[in-house]
Design brief:
Layout: H1 7-34, H2 39-54, H3 56-64, E1 67-68, H4 75-88, E2 94-98, E3 105-108, E4 116-120, H5 121-126, H6 129-144, H7 147-174, H8 186-225, H9 228-242, H10 247-252, H11 280-295
Parallel strand pairs: 2-4
Antiparallel strand pairs: 1-2, 3-4
Helix pairs in contact: 1-8, 2-7, 4-6, 6-8, 6-9, 7-8, 8-11, 9-11
């Protein structure tokens, strides 16, 4: 199936990145005007972004306790991924298995050549082959769209704002006002308020971008497999199963929510504005529309 770009979705992604860039420029202007002593924090943020980008796969595997598995251990899983990679024109990624009763899957890695596609052992037992192919194609779409790079860039502004807020809070608790230039009195108040506003705005934009990339990955799965209905079935199964998984099991992997095909949320339902993923009904509606496009009805 030919890979077709959704230009409406692409425009929303680029508009979100543009708005993040504007927020970054405004924030940097305020810092240079009032915060001569924040150079170290910006350098630290750059360092964290560097680590996040280049070591994302290792960090995610470590945090989720997923392990790389060989073809001898999971031959059918490797065959499915190899077939999908040929369809998507991608190099073969490493494959990992994560022990968890939460049925889910994720992809990570800084580029297609350094990608890892992982799934929980429980999802292998729950889905049929078509559904599993659709889920894995969704994860490979994240790889093809270079979403790790996109989200690393998107998180940079919020990271700087967060570190400056923590620095100011720590300084206030110690009763200090270190720094030079105009970093005192009103300047500190302006920097503090700007940091809070920038963090909130950048976080909301980053979450919107995360939701857009999930829509894009769903579309990619439909185009790679030519079977949007299989992904709809898989999403419904995963969502239904998530409702009965013990909260303790979901809490253990909640930190990796942004990576999963469906977030493993515990507690009350969060508002869509603050969600990393679109509502299931909107994802299914988009997949139904793609299915109609593919089959001409």
């Amino acid at each position: 199936m030919e890979w077709k770009r959704d230009w409406g979705l692409t425009a929303r992604v680029w508009m979100t990145m543009f708005l993040l860039f504007i927020v970054y420029l405004v924030f940097m202007t305020i810092l240079f005007e009032y915060g001569a002593g924040f150079g170290l924090i910006i350098l630290l943020a750059v360092g964290f972004a560097f680590v996040q980008y280049f070591f994302s796969a290792q960090l995610v595997l470590w945090s989720t306790k997923a392990r790389i598995v060989s073809e001898d251990e999971y031959p059918e899983l490797h065959q499915i991924v190899e077939k999908l990679c040929k369809e998507a024109d991608l190099p073969m990624p490493r494959i990992a298995i994560m022990p968890s009763p939460v049925p889910n899957a994720f992809a990570t890695g800084r580029s297609p050549k350094h990608a890892v596609v992982a799934c929980t052992d429980s999802i292998l037992k729950m889905l049929n082959r078509d559904e599993l192919e659709a889920v894995l194609a969704h994860e490979l779409s994240h790889v093809k769209n270079r979403d790790i790079l996109t989200m690393t860039l998107a998180s940079f502004v919020a990271m700087i704002a967060s570190m400056i807020m923590q620095s100011l809070l720590f300084s206030a608790l110690l009763g200090g006002t270190s720094g030079g230039g105009r970093r005192n009195g009103g300047g500190l108040i302006i920097i503090g308020l700007a940091s809070v506003v920038v963090w909130v705005v950048a976080t909301l934009l980053m979450l919107a971008l995360s939701r857009y990339r999930e829509f894009a990955a769903d579309r990619g799965s439909a185009l790679i497999t030519g079977n949007p209905k299989a992904l709809i079935s898989a999403l419904n199964k995963i969502s239904t199963r998530m409702d009965v998984v013990p909260p303790q099991a979901k809490a253990k992997i909640q930190g990796a929510n942004a990576f999963f095909i469906i977030p493993a949320l515990s507690g009350n339902k969060i508002m869509e504005l603050f969600a990393t993923h679109p509502p299931l009904e909107k994802r299914i509606a988009q997949l139904d529309k793609i299915d109609a496009e593919l089959h001409g009805y």
